[in-house]
Design brief:
It is a single chain. This protein is mainly alpha-helical. The chain has 10 helices and no strands. It has one domain. 80% of the residues lie in helices and 0% in strands. The two termini are 22 Å apart.
Length: 244
Amino acid sequence: MYVGQQPPAATLKAALGNIHRDGHWWYKVLIGGALLTSIVGWSIAEGYQLESIENIQRGFPTPLPRWADWSTKLLIGFFGIIIDFFFFAFPCLLGAFGVLVVSLIMGIWIEGPLRQTITQVLAILVAGYVVLVWASSAGIVSKVLFVRDGGISAALETKLIRQGLRQPALTAYGPARLQTLPFYALALVVLALGWSVPLSGWIRLGVIWLGMSSFFYARLVVVQLYAAAVAELERRRFAEAHRR
């Protein structure tokens, strides 16, 4: 629950307004994009996003933090990466390993189209899991809860996936996910251009930087919407519990 005077942005327009209210938003976003482009700075950029969630929960009128105290952002961002790894990377690695093992076994006992079909089915199951996690919003909700409660163990619970796919969470999180899709799509288009279009080295790097900056901007928008969605969902649960 937010403790300041400014409630979390419940609409896309409000979220964008909060970001653009900061006169330095553009270079803060570009710095975040540069860190994401460098790969090694990913944890710092992740820490910045988690710090922005904390500012939202505290009710700051402008949730964008200053680019300072980099070591703290690096440490906090490491926990954000752990959350992403838990919900996305680790299951995908297990699935890929399973596909590899099954493929090797089938290579000995099964030949022909049947082996290819079984491998494709297993790959589809792994991809389906990723889509379910994305649809449940478990990753970003987990980060909001981590920042609010300060405990990583409570944030790493698979029940968040089940809860996110059921009512009332589905209704609360769904609009936030759908509203930010165009921003992610724009980032993907820019990144695709940077990789596919024949460009000179520095120009290509600049386009990729802009693409990663667009992705970083989208993340700053989405954390605001989800902070508001989580707060609203808990308000409803609290009101329902008191009615009983």
